[in-house]
Design brief:
By secondary structure, this protein is α/β, with parallel strands linked by helices. It folds into two domains: 174 residues, 3-Layer(aba) Sandwich (Peroxisomal Thiolase, Chain A, domain 1), CATH 3.40.47; 143 residues, Thiolase/Chalcone synthase (Peroxisomal Thiolase, Chain A, domain 1). It contains ten helices and 13 strands. It has a five-stranded mixed β-sheet with strand order 1-7-6-4-5, sandwiched between helices. It has a four-stranded mixed β-sheet with strand order 8-13-12-11, with helices on both faces. The radius of gyration is 19 Å and the shape is globular. 50% of the residues are buried. Bound molecules: acetyl coenzyme *A. The site of acetyl coenzyme *A has 24 residues, from helix 2, helix 6, helix 7, helix 8 and strand 12.
Length: 325
């Protein structure tokens, strides 16, 4: 007998060329490199060029993930782009990615769960694959978050950046007695009662404008550290594992203190926690695949490792995905 499994066949990340350092930010608002590094562990962020859109970042990451996977757009039949910053209100950025990859086949749609978007998208594509709707998916987290920022608001503008990360997910049939592989379990949650703690004050149905990010920083911090454990434990329990079995924890790269707080709450040694927030800041849905691609590229995550992806974001939404690499 065999069972259907979804594996991650390739990973890729892309950061726009332009780097905005803390020192440069300090010439724009009343802040300092010291404050930013000490409070959130961010040194610099990347900013998309004028005329460079979320779908452009997504395409770059997708190409790198496909190269790593050894596949071409012809092999893909599903594209999910997790984003809060699509090029247009519609169509979905995913359809623009599809076009830019020269594809006429398959299906493409966006998924909006803010910073949890990539984890939600991995679980969604995994379900599509396991239910027979797709065989090979590009799952992309891509953001031009800088375009939602009020660059006069020092409490938010220092925290975020632009970027994209992508994975190629693929359906395999695994013999029952073969070593386990691929996505083992996912857990997703949300609670809309918290929406005002982190939101953008614009939208097509409210103001007709894009709006800017607003955040109750300490509240977000409290929930971000507090909420992650339930989904992590739920995913571990479903697959029959405990925290001690994890080789790697790849959390949403919101900020250093949130990541350290989450790791400590789970009882994970810091060396098992992947952290890349210092070089790209909070890139929302792009942050988990950016961290993942860095850890795969430098050889830390390798075949057979047990990897937990985790994220929390506006809504609130939060989720986790357990993967045997
Ligand atoms: N530079 C210098 N000073 C600043 C800055 C800045 N960029 N921003 C705020 N301050 C000041 C404040 O005005 C305040 O000054 P005051 O005491 O004179 O009023 C002081 O610093 C302390 O502000 P607090 O808000 O109390 O600082 P706190 O220790 O709570 O840290 C922070 C603020 C870092 C934002 C924290 O609340 C946090 O990490 N929250 C989570 C934010 C986050 O990462 N959000 C990302 C999106 S959510 C997600 O992705 C899960």
């Amino acid at each position: 007998m065999t069972k259907t499994r979804t594996i991650i066949r390739g990973v890729g990340g892309y950061l726009p060329e332009r780097v905005l350092t803390n020192a440069e930010l300090a010439t724009m608002v009343d802040t300092s490199d010291e404050w930013i590094q000490q409070r959130v562990g961010i040194k610099e962020r990347h900013i998309a060029a004028e005329g460079q859109f979320t779908s452009d970042l997504a395409v770059e990451a997708a190409k790198r993930a496909m190269t790593a996977a050894g596949v071409t757009p012809d092999d893909i039949d599903l594209i999910v782009v997790a984003t809060t910053t699509p090029d247009y209100t519609f169509p979905a950025a995913a359809t623009l990615v599809q076009m830019k990859l020269g594809m006429h086949h398959g299906m493409a749609f966006d998924l909006q769960a803010v910073c949890s978007g990539f984890v939600y998208a991995v679980a969604t594509a995994d379900s599509y694959i396991k239910n027979g709707l797709a065989t090979r998916a590009l799952v992309i987290g891509a953001e031009t978050f800088s375009r939602l920022l009020d660059w006069n608001d020092r409490t938010t503008c220092v925290l975020f950046g632009d970027g994209a990360g992508a994975v190629v997910l693929e359906k395999i049939e695994l013999d029952d007695d073969a070593p386990e592989q691929g996505i083992l379990a996912s857990a997703l949650r949300s609670d809309g009662h918290h929406w005002e703690k982190l939101y953008v004050d614009g939208g097509p149905s409210t103001t007709g404008t894009t709006g800017h990010v607003h955040m109750q920083g300490p509240e977000v911090f409290r929930h971000a550290v507090g909420k992650i454990t339930d989904v992590v434990y739920a995913a571990l329990e479903e697959a029959g594992y405990t925290v001690e079995d994890l080789d790697w924890f790849v959390p949403h790269q919101a900020n250093k203190r949130i990541i350290e707080g989450a790791g400590a709450k789970l009882g994970l040694p810091p060396e098992k926690v992947i952290m890349t927030v210092d070089i790209h800041a909070n890139t929302s849905a792009a942050s988990v695949p950016l961290a993942l691609s860095a850890a795969v590229a430098d050889g830390r995550i390798k075949k057979g490792d047990l990897v937990m992806l985790e994220a929390m974001g506006g809504g609130f939404t939060w989720g986790a995905s357990l993967i045997r690499w």
